[in-house]
User: Which sequence fits this backbone?
């Protein structure tokens, strides 16, 4: 698999990362060499190997269905660039 | 039930088109707290008051799954006769929106918790099976409020992080009526199970509707459009009708249908393209590194299966067998758990068939009129059963029963008391009836002669007179018998 400049720009847009034109070339090169390395790993046959989802030998931790959080509106809103007493305030987004 | 033929097609200028519909239903899981945090899920709280640092995506916060939400998804899966997956994985679905603070929704992509299942619909043209593709768990987003400020949008994250079940159907639905039946069936099953309250006004149940059309008889599906986030059955039906007609028009004019996301404008009654969602299908899913795979012990699944309540399909069969109801009656009476409970309570104490008839007639009409659920009926099941028994035993006539019913609604009194205090008992004493009838005969000699001369239509007139004279209390069967006998004489 290889990646071209257009794809780089596309992915950057989706991830909301601004990439200036000058950097696109070097990014394309870097990413392609990373993909090449990953492709090397594909040479190994892993048919009978379970996917490794964590290096810790643990299962998913769960909690009981209890209400023990929330009611901290002030703290939640504190770092918002724009807010009023109750809401986050953002630029108008309307379909 | 009469077997009608399926007949929902869109007629274009040239051809007849079949409409193919698949639904992605988002059902809010009934739980006290959210899927990955301990904030409350209660509806209608003050804005942003049920938000934790996890729900608002503060840095360094880690999600911990709510075990009850997992159980609810398994119960729902079992209710849909679906395969429960012992191994499922949570993925990140990446997109940017103001009411999604994480920048991704935790969902399940490749390995959902529930696999294929099925739902049975009773349509006028027979029973129809709708395939379920999958059910997965995911987080809800927050709510954007656009109408409180002319230049800003307000964001409330109370809903952010509440557990949803996304139930994806196969493209098996073919008409707005089938969509109606499907949503109602799903809702009914989940309400029986107690896994979703199905309250569409509060947004607990909403759907993305996939619509495509194809010429009648074609095997290949057409290009589909997805109508996002429709929150009532009526709007779903309207959106489908509009969208199918739009697609047929495009095809007949030789134009191409773009696969796209559209929204349904409920004010203009039309669907239109959502430009903002152009890139939306590139979600770049990947397994959420904060969450390990979800492994379910088979024992847990088996235990949940054993603890499931009787579901509508089973209950329907039982009602038909046990109470002698027809398919239509059984369907109506099992449609909601509360209705079925009420009916069973009444049926235990009175005539089963008559109880069904009166429930589906007068009781439902009254509840509908007052906008009440059966759980808030002004008439208790016990009193209703007494009323049914009074009709069955002949103590009161059907007509009088309607009057008693009205008084029961107003006063909440038991029917026995009403019948006695108002002297509404049916006149079933043959001697008394004969007296009344003889009086009528002597008063209407001319009509009696006409009747005897062959004008049999007049019989109704005599019955009417008996009813009038008896204040509506004459036993109809007895009246008929005695009238016939005495008119002959």
Assistant:
């Amino acid at each position: 698999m290889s990646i071209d400049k257009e794809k780089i720009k596309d992915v950057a847009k989706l991830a909301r990362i601004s990439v200036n034109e000058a950097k696109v070339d070097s990014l394309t090169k870097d990413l392609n060499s990373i993909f090449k390395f990953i492709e090397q790993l594909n040479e190994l046959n892993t048919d009978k190997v379970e996917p490794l989802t964590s290096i810790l030998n643990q299962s998913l931790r769960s909690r009981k269905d209890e209400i023990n959080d929330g009611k901290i509106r002030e703290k939640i809103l504190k770092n918002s660039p724009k807010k009023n007493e109750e809401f986050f305030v953002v630029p108008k987004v309307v379909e | 039930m009469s077997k009608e033929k399926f007949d929902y097609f869109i007629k274009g200028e040239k051809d007849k088109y079949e409409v193919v519909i698949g639904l992605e239903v988002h059902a809010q899981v009934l739980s006290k707290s959210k899927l990955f945090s301990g904030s409350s899920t209660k509806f209608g709280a003050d804005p942003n008051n049920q938000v934790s640092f996890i729900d608002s995506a503060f840095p360094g916060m880690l999600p911990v799954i709510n075990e009850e939400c997992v159980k609810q998804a398994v119960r729902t899966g079992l209710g849909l006769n679906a395969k429960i997956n012992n191994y499922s994985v949570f993925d990140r679905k990446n997109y940017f929106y103001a009411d999604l603070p994480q920048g991704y929704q935790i969902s399940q992509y490749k390995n959902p918790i529930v696999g294929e299942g099925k739902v049975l619909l009773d349509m006028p043209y027979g029973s129809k099976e709708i395939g379920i593709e999958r059910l997965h768990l995911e987080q809800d987003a927050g709510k954007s409020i656009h109408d409180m400020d002319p230049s800003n949008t307000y964001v409330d994250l109370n809903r952010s992080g509440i557990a949803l079940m996304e139930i994806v159907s196969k493209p098996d639905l073919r008409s707005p009526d089938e969509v109606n039946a499907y949503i109602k069936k799903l809702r009914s099953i989940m309400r029986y199970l107690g896994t979703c309250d199905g309250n569409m006004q509060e947004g607990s149940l909403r759907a993305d509707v996939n619509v495509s059309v194809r010429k009648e008889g074609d095997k290949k599906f057409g290009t589909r459009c997805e109508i996002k986030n429709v929150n009532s059955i009526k709007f779903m039906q309207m959106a489908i009708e509009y969208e199918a007609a739009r697609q047929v028009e495009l095809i007949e004019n030789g134009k191409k249908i773009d696969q796209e996301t559209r929204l349904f404008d409920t004010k203009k009654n039309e669907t239109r393209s959502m430009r903002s969602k152009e890139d939306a299908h590139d979600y770049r899913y990947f397994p959420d590194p904060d969450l390990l795979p979800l492994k379910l012990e088979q024992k847990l699944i088996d235990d949940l299966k054993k603890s499931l309540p009787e579901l509508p399909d089973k209950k329907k069969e039982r009602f038909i067998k046990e109470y002698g109801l027809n398919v239509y009656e059984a369907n109506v009476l099992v449609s909601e758990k509360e209705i079925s409970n009420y009916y069973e309570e009444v049926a235990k104490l009175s005539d089963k068939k008559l109880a069904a008839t009166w429930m589906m007639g007068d009781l439902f009409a009254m509840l509908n009129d007052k906008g009440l659920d059966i759980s808030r009926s002004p008439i208790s099941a016990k009193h209703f059963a007494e009323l049914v028994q009074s009709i069955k035993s002949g103590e009161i006539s059907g007509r009088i029963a309607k009057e008693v019913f009205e008084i029961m609604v107003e006063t909440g009194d038991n029917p026995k008391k009403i019948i006695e205090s108002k002297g509404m008992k049916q006149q079933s004493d043959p001697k008394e009836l004969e007296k009344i009838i003889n009086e009528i005969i002597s008063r209407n000699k001319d009509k009696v002669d006409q009747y005897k001369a062959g004008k049999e239509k007049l019989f109704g007139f005599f019955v009417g007179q008996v009813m009038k004279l008896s204040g509506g209390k004459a036993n109809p069967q007895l009246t008929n018998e005695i009238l016939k006998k005495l008119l002959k004489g």
